[in-house]
């Protein structure tokens, strides 16, 4: 939650977002929403840890 102290967001650049999402899902993380695309320029995804 936004009112809780601690690390809230962190970003990583990866070569293959779809493969990375599959890999972290296998490790227990869940995709929040879907994979988004911004103006045909880059992809992004939010994941939540176990």
From TrEMBL:
<dbReference type="InterPro" id="IPR029068">
    <property type="entry name" value="Glyas_Bleomycin-R_OHBP_Dase"/>
</dbReference>
<protein>
    <recommendedName>
        <fullName>VOC family protein</fullName>
    </recommendedName>
</protein>
């Amino acid at each position: 939650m936004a009112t809780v102290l601690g690390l809230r967001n962190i970003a990583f650049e990866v070569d293959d977002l779809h493969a990375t999402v599959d890999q972290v899902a296998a490790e227990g993380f869940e995709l929040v929403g879907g994979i988004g695309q911004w103006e045909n320029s880059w992809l992004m995804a939010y994941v939540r840890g176990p």
